[in-house]
Write a structure and sequence with these properties.
alpha/beta, 8-stranded mixed beta sheet, two-stranded antiparallel ribbon, 11 helices, 10 strands
Amino acid sequence: MDNLKQALPKAQKNPPPAPVVSSSSGSLPSASKLHAAFSGYFPTWCPGCGNFGIWTAIKSAFSKMKLNPDKMAVVFGIGCSGNMNDFLWANSFHALHGRAIPNAVGIKIANHSLPVIVIVGDGDCYGEGGNHFLHAARGNHDITVIVHDNRVYGLTTGQVAPTAYKGFKSRSTPNGIIEVPVNPIALAVSQGATFVGQGFSGDMAHLTQLLESAVKHRGFSVVNVFQPCVTFNHVNSYSWYRERVYKLAPENHNPEDINRAWEKSLEVEEKIPLGIIYQVERPVYTDSLPQLAEKPLVFSEPVTDLEMLINEFV
């Protein structure tokens, strides 16, 4: 323990005390206390970073839902978004690059009574973790994936991410990127995600409502959040998005219509939709596991009869 304490940075030796959130009485504290409970260290992101808006919207959504920090699980990927692991107070796990989703799936199967949230970046989720994203969507795992989409790898000084537009110039592509961008919304809709939303970190009120809807949805929910990187992406700025984004509403969009959702998913440059693009209901992955019919796996008795297993498989 002494060695561990010595290894910690000075700023972390005396962490800010989190409010005690007791669930022994079966009641939850007020929303304001919960908001404080979710606040960890103050972020070290660049001034003006779009991550601040996402961070605030996440805490606001969790507080409005009266979620309990010790009765949920948050899995972080690697990158500037993953640094939120220190800035958001909740039961959390910092996964390897591209591996946040499979860790979240494992947590959900182990205890499907927990709300499970994944916080990742566009490179982390659509690049290194793209295969996990596809299969979690088609399996309709009951987790919520919040993606910080700034079109660059900000933590490693601005290399192009999978969502970067063709021709985007960066340190790793000084003559412009050759590939066309990944379309995360079309990808999610086509691969079976049952909730697909898109938000903008410059509109925290709207983003808060969208995240709340995503977390409440039973099934695989993904929210792609446009998050301007003020340091390494001077093209897709706050003003660039404000000139192009518009909000979907019941009078102009039916999220249950997959054909309309597909049309909206293809709006990626001149006009870009925000809100719930697609939402349907279908059984989640854990519904098909008979081992979980009575109670979460974590509360089941462990198998200790090794002789039975040896006889069957050896």
